[in-house]
Specification:
The complex is a heterodimer.
Chain A lengths: L1 E5 L2 E5 L5 H5 L8 E2 L5 E2 L12 E4 L2 E4 L10 E3 L3
Parallel strand pairs in A: 1-7
Antiparallel strand pairs in A: 1-2, 3-4, 5-6, 5-7
Chain B lengths: L4 E6 L3 H10 L6 E4 L20 H12 L3 E4 L3 E7 L2 E5 L4 E11 L3 E3 L12 E2 L1 H9 L8 E7 L2 H11 L3 E7 L18 H10 L3 E2 L2 E7 L6 E6 L2 E6 L2 E6 L1 E3 L2 H6 L3 E2 L2 E2 L12 E3 L8 H16 L3 H5 L2 H17 L15 E3 L4 E2 H5 L4 H8 L11 H9 L15 H5 L7
Helix pairs in contact in B: 1-2, 1-7, 3-4, 4-5, 7-9
The chains are: A mainly beta, B alpha/beta.
The complex binds flavin-adenine dinucleotide and FE2/S2 (inorganic) cluster.
């Protein structure tokens, strides 16, 4: 198991889990807030739509193409 | 400055892996890059909830055994850095890689069409849901509606069921002809799971499509049209995708010809551009067997083994015939073009509604006036949808092809490494 945090909330996930999958165990399952203020969640699951972009340790990354690592800080409301 | 790599392959799906393995015995230097964390492409996506078939694990093991194949996972192409040079980026760094020959194996993505409520959390693509489940999304005990078109709906339903979800409806927009059996034979899915989904569950409907996803903060139900009947189904997730569209953007940016949404290749898998080849679903939707044989041919041709490549032509032709029938069977119903209402967002990056787009005559005019397609996905979702909805030709992608770090872009001024 790995431990990471999503919006400050600690979370344990299995090795090989993507950040997109980890989001489903977080507060509202969402990855970002759209330009008009809607909360959005991963859509395509394959690196195309960019709906899953989150901030991981300060860098913008696609949650669906990033594997969880121990100690990662994920933010969906930067 | 280091030497350019002899052969660069973009995409580590069935086509890219087959191409690398076919070219490797020649001893040339090969780089395979893919933006996913692990090789396998769409069909062999790995993850905590994925079970790979033997052919996939064997191919992956073989890739590792060749010391002249270097696999860069989690790496994307950001821009073209000059003739036969690409700017790349992974989680740690950006760099420019030169190549002598290139094989595009960029595969396909789902066609996602806008309908009211499609931006609600809980709504995903059909293959998108399958990909998310494989990568660890838990669906046990959830009620799932799967809708759209093509065999991917059934593959996705099988994965959802296997992981404990209740698939309450599978809505295929095509009519009876689509499931008359032969076309589905192309797809390798677990036969038992397939039967469980289509027969035992009774959830499968033909001539059925989504009208609206309902919910306030999150999906709560789906309104569906089935033949002439309208019904509302309570559910936790809606997975909706209208078959696949080839990823042609990189090929097109390099100067390869794209026709009918696919990269144009000849019988040697060569594009019109010298030393540039393409194989697999970026040259047209066809399933994994076709992708494998096309990849093999491209790899052999790239190392000058034309005669061996030619021996695989009959195999390719056989799978191509299946693919053609599959594509005919799942032709989209024109009614799907009218699902979006005036305030349905078409561009999800810039939140541009249908009404703002409908008055324009072309993609360019819509883009300049509404910011549609100017967001992070660069129109990969909305321009593709607009092509289906309005018939607008999608634009050629401009660099950076996807959001990149400033430090990466700065590498454009440096010599290749
Ligand atoms: C979710 C999903 C499930 C599917 N399931 C089945 C199935 O059960 N049976 C079946 O026969 N077919 C299935 N298909 C169809 C499937 O796409 C093909 O059968 C097969 O995977 C095609 O192989 P390919 O090598 O051409 O492309 P893909 O498998 O799509 O591989 C292309 C790879 O290239 C990567 N890539 C693309 N562009 C870039 C870039 N610019 N930079 C870096 N990397 C890039 C992609 O991320 C991907 O990993 C599925 C498709 C999808 C989308
Ligand atoms: S979910 Fe679409 S890019 Fe990650």
């Amino acid at each position: 198991m790995l431990e990471l945090s999503i919006d400050g909330q600690p979370l344990r996930v299995a090795q090989g889990t993507t950040v997109a999958a980890a989001l489903t165990a977080s507060g509202d399952h969402c990855s970002r807030t759209s330009v008009s203020g809607q909360r959005r969640a991963p859509l395509c699951g394959m690196g195309i739509c960019q709906e899953c972009r989150v901030t991981i340790d300060g860098l913008r990354r696609l949650a669906c193409q990033t594997l969880c690592r121990d100690g990662m800080h994920v933010e969906t409301r930067p | 400055m280091t030497r350019p790599v002899d052969l660069l392959i973009i995409g580590a799906g069935p086509a890219g892996m087959a191409a690398a393995l076919a070219a490797a015995p020649s001893g040339i230097s090969i780089v395979v890059l893919d933006d996913n964390p692990l090789p396998g492409g769409q069909i062999w996506r790995d993850g905590p909830n994925a079970q790979l078939p033997t052919v996939a694990t064997e191919m992956r093991a073989q890739l590792q055994r060749y010391s002249n194949i270097h696999l860069h996972s989690g790496t994307k192409v950001v821009a073209i850095a000059g003739p036969k040079r690409l700017l790349l980026e992974d989680a740690e760094r950006g760099w420019v890689l030169g190549y002598e020959k290139l094989i595009l194996c960029t595969g396909a993505r789902e066609l996602l069409l806008p309908f009211p409520g499609w931006t609600l959390p809980g709504v995903t693509g059909a293959g998108g849901l399958q990909a998310l489940i494989k990568s660890g999304v838990p669906v046990s005990g959830e009620r799932i509606v799967i809708a759209g078109s093509g065999p991917l709906l059934l593959a996705s339903a099988a994965t959802a069921k296997k992981n404990g979800a209740e698939v309450v409806r599978i809505a295929e927009q095509a009519g009876r002809r689509a499931v008359s059996g032969f076309a589905l034979g192309l797809w390798r899915w677990p036969n038992k799971a397939f039967q469980a989904v289509t027969l035992a569950s009774g959830a499968y409907r033909l001539s059925a499509h989504v009208i609206e996803a309902l919910g306030s903060d999150r999906l709560e139900a789906v309104r569906m049209q089935t033949g002439s009947r309208v019904e509302e189904i309570a559910c936790d997730r809606l997975a909706c995708g209208f078959s696949l569209v080839p990823n042609t953007e990189l090929g097109s940016a390099l100067g390869c010809e794209v026709r009918d949404r696919a990269i144009v290749v000849d019988e040697w898998q060569t594009t019109g551009l010298t030393d540039h080849y393409a194989a697999g679903e970026c040259t047209g939707f066809g399933g994994s067997e076709l992708a494998l044989v096309e990849g093999k041919i491209a790899g052999l041709v790239a190392v000058g083994r034309q005669e061996e490549a030619r021996a695989h032509w009959p195999e390719r032709q056989r799978w191509q015939r299946f693919a053609d029938r599959l594509n005919q069977a799942f032709t989209l119903d024109p009614a799907l073009k009218t699902l979006a209402t005036a305030d349905t967002l078409v561009c999800r990056c810039e939140d541009v509604p249908y009404a703002e787009l409908a008055d324009h005559a072309s993609w360019n005019s819509a883009k300049l006036n509404t910011r549609c397609g100017m967001g992070a996905c660069q129109g990969r979702i909305c321009a593709t949808a607009a092509h289906t909805l309005f018939g607008w030709e999608p634009p050629r992608l401009r660099p950076p092809f996807s959001p990149a770090r400033i430090a990466t872009l700065a590498c454009l001024d440096e010599p290749a490494a």
